[in-house]
Amino acid sequence: MADAPALEVDAVTVRYGDVTALDDCSLTLTRGRVHGLIGMNGSGKSTLFKAVMSAVRPQSGTVRVDGEDPARARARSAIAYVPQSEDVDWDFPLSVRDVVMMGRYGSMGPMRRPRAADHAAVDAALARVELADLAGRQIGRLSGGQRKRAFVARGLAQGASLLLLDEPFAGVDKRSERTIVALLRELADEGRTLLVSTHDLHALPQLADDAILLLRRTLFHGSVTEALRPENLTRAFGMDLGDTRQDDSGGAA
Amino acid sequence: MSIIDVLVEPLQYDFMVRALLVTVIAAVVCALLSCWLVLVGWSLMGDAVSHAVLPGVVLAYIMGAPFAIGALVFGVLAVVLIGVVRGTSRVKEDAAIGIVFTTLFALGLVLVSVTPSQTDLSHIIFGNILGVSSTDLWQIAILAAVAFAALILKRRDLTLYAFDPTHARAIGLSPRVLGSLLLGLLAVVSVVALQVVGVVLVVALLIIPGATAYLLTDRFSRMLWIAPLISSLCSVVGIYLSYWLDAASGGLVVVVQGAAFALVYLLSPRHGLLGRWRTARRGARVGH
Ligand SMILES: Nc1ncnc2c1ncn2[C@@H]1O[C@H](COP(=O)(O)OP(=O)(O)O)[C@@H](O)[C@H]1O
Ligand SMILES: [Mg+2]
Fold first, then answer.
1. What are the phi and psi torsion angles at A42 (to 5°)?
2. One-character DSSP codes across B213-275
3. Which of A137, B141, B249, B277 has the most beta carbons within 10 angstroms of its beta carbon?
4. Residues on chain B touching A100 (C-beta within 8 angstroms)
5. What is the spatial distance between Cα B203 and Cα A30, in angstroms, rounded to a whole number?
6. Which protein residues are within 6 Å of ligand 1, measured from CB?
7. What is the count of structural domains for chain B?
8. A81: which strand partners?
């Protein structure tokens, strides 16, 4: 459906035992834009991504992608997911190229034996994120920013139209951050839809077309400038405005 | 006595030839599976399933059914019970695993003790590689071939599952199906391995080779060669040692595997103790 929203989250509630991670959360994303998803630690950003991926089962509510059941969207490899760093085993014995090739598995035969078209798509994706020279490296031997770009390349090789990026700027130095921001902007200009969670508010104006403030539910969805107003941030991050500091836990690895 | 004699003399006995064959078959398929188990972090699960199959094997023996079927039923039962205990109480996963597998294993021991013709069954617990009949050999070979084929044909999907199950979901694959496939193969392979080293030591063949290969390479595709090669070599050495030392074959197979791991752990160029120490020193010198 060409005119359906890229992503529609309707009244989704997710609980882990006693913890309510998402409470009646609704959200609609229009196509071809970068949407910034802002919220403090524990506000439910990762859970929202996992609900879209059906990696957690919501207690109630529905998710639709391009107007259809997300399972059907996934079956045509339409959704790409870039996990937060702590969810990845960086010691896993795979090269950058191996990881990007995994983006193609959905469209391959049952043995996932790559053909010429698959190699070409992987080469193109690697060139696009400027990792062609490092294709043979074990994934853990990349800097923080390069690691993120490798996973974005996997989404490109996959041909996804909706990209979900969970904290892509955590542990990434300023220069890599600018490279990633430019890359994500290009992808949106091509018509892809990006949902990018971050608590780095400084990058937001360059990165996002609009911003979503999340605290178990959508507190605000609108322009970036308005989202950054103190009264809105206070609601999303609690009373202490000093808490809007970015995560600078590490530079490039 | 020359080295040739040492190698050839045991081969004049059919039981030794069968023992070596079965050992290599089991070592290869266990080592292959172990590459995924160590990366998914399922060592404890391997321990659990390989013990929990015991009552299934004994019941299959009593009913005259193939061992693999009994093993599969109890392997699956163990996994389901672990999931239930963990998911519906405050007991954590490692405790749930410990409770379920020891209980099922103990049930197996009880069944062994009340089943006539105990000698046969005690072999399941401690392994009896030198007593493998040609019927056993066939059963083992068929099970191993099935597991081997499944692992090789689905190797890329299984690796994807081990590395990033959410991405598997993202491209329309089912992590649940892939995880179940891995667990089912674990139960089947346990049956193969328990004939060699016995239920108690199966887990060694399911963990050590993968861990050893993991210390030697940064390429998963190479692990799939290195692990079976090292594991079958170690197992053959273990069998020969048991012949010449007249000591427990299952025990020696595992001891040699462990020794090979220790050697690699110390000397592996990149991920061994020595390699890491050298890298650290070089780094320090550059730093000054
Ligand atoms: N697997 C889980 N089990 C139990 N609680 C969880 C789990 N994952 C997340 N939570 C809880 O759900 C809430 C939202 O977490 P999360 O979605 O990871 O937030 P964010 O990504 O914004 O930091 C937090 O309180 C967190 O502790
Ligand atoms: Mg998170």
1. 85, 5
2. HHTT-S-HHHHHHHHHHHHHHHHHHHHHHHHHHT--HHHHHHHHHHHHHHHHHHH-TTTSHHH
3. B249
4. none
5. 52
6. A 16, 19, 21, 39, 41-47
7. 1
8. A164
Contact B195, B127 (CB under 8 A): yes
The CATH code of the domain that includes B70 is 1.10.3470.10
Residues in chain B within 8 Å Cβ distance of A152: none
Nearest-angstrom CA–CA distance, B208 and B210: 6
Domain holding B99, by residue range, is 3-287
Cα gap A9→A2, rounded to integer Å: 18
Cα A53 to averaged position of ligand 2 atoms, centre (Å): 14
Q: How far is the CA of A210 from the centre of ligand 2 (A)?
A: 20
Query: Which residues, 6 or more positions from B54, have their beta carbon under 8 angstroms from its beta carbon?
Result: B74, B104, B105, B107, B108, B109, B111, B112, B124, B125, B199
ipTM: 0.90
C-alpha to C-alpha distance for A164 and B275, rounded to whole angstroms: 39
- pTM beyond cutoff 0.95: no
What is the position in ligand 1's atom list of the atom closest to the CA of A17?
A: 4
**DSSP-assigned letter for residue A192:** -
